[in-house]
Amino acid sequence: MKRNIQVIQDLQGNKIVVVNDIIFKGRQNIDWNDVERYLKQYIGDFIEITESKDLVYIGSDLPDEYAGSNYTSKLKGALAKAKANAAQGIPEIIEIAVNKRFQENLAPKHNKNAKFGWYRYDSRFALPIFDENGEILRYNVFHAELLIRHASNGKLYLYDIVNIKKETGTPLGQ
């Protein structure tokens, strides 16, 4: 599937993944089954995080978790639309991730798939805002945390993207 993605830097030199197309429309009724189907194209891929040089794999559990997690089920409005459309930029969102943090595995249900715990990284992405004529007015920038599981096979797997927040301040211009 063709993706219209680019990575840019803000004025402070921080990278942002710009997702130029909105393929999951609407803010009230995101079809998470469509998002899940879209994410399946990434299964088996791996991406290197530029900052840490960690390799992050996309496992078969990502589509279901991304689209059906407790976090996703609580999302409404613009944040649900943001998470759905961020799926288009998953490889780049992983690539530009920064601020690696470790977290012990505390849930017995994850003893196998996150045997060695969890890592969280920060990343940013931007989505376009269109006018009534379909022209791009500006881009809203979002901060997100990547939740990466450290599996029993020693590999790191993207598990979900959580804590998505719209950044305040001046949005990106066209």
Briefly characterize the structure:
With 174 residues, the protein is of the alpha+beta class. It has helices spanning 32-39, 62-68, 70-74, 77-86, 90-95; strands at residues 5-9, 15-19, 46-48, 55-57, 98-103, 118-130, 136-150, 156-166.
Describe the protein.
Helix content is 21%, strand content 35%. By secondary structure, the protein is an alpha+beta fold. The chain has one domain. Strands 1, 2, 3, 4, 5, 6, 7 and 8 form an eight-stranded mixed sheet that branches. Strand 3 (46-48) and strand 4 form a beta hairpin.
| Sheet of most strands | 8 strands, mixed
Strand content: 35-45%
Helix content: 10-25%
Number of strands: 8
Rg, Cα atoms, Å: 16 Å
Distance between the termini: 25 Å
What is the N-to-C order of secondary-structure elements (H for helix, E for strand)?
Answer: EEHEEHHHHEEEE
Q: List the domain count as a whole number.
A: 1
What secondary-structure arrangement, pairings included, does this model have?
Elements: E1 5-9, E2 15-19, H1 32-39, E3 46-48, E4 55-57, H2 62-68, H3 70-74, H4 77-86, H5 90-95, E5 98-103, E6 118-130, E7 136-150, E8 156-166
Parallel strand pairs: 2-6, 4-8
Antiparallel strand pairs: 1-2, 3-4, 5-6, 6-7, 7-8
Task: Write out key terms for the chains shown.
174 residues; alpha+beta; 5 helices; 8 strands
